[in-house]
Amino acid sequence: MIKYIDFTPKLTKKGGLFKSAQIETFSDIVTSMNEWISQNAFEIVNIETVLLPNIHDSDEEGSNDTMLGTGRESSSHWYQLIRVWYKE
Fold first, then answer.
1. 9-32: pLDDT as tens digits
2. Which among 29, 40, 45 is positioned nearest to 85, based on CA atoms?
């Protein structure tokens, strides 16, 4: 069975009216991915980077949301994440 796991940048500090939110770096999520791979004996099928909008918004379901909005607000934030496809 083919499955996937997403390594998304965690929100480290919420933004405000005049201040942007802070998130983990791409290097941080690569480190998390490498730790997960070393702790699991799954066969890796593919590793890809994915760019998704607004995954940290309160009305979204993160990287598993099948419909992420970008038009309802004055600005959107796009997030780069890593998706690992593997066989269990």
1. 888 887 777 777 788 888 999 999
2. 45
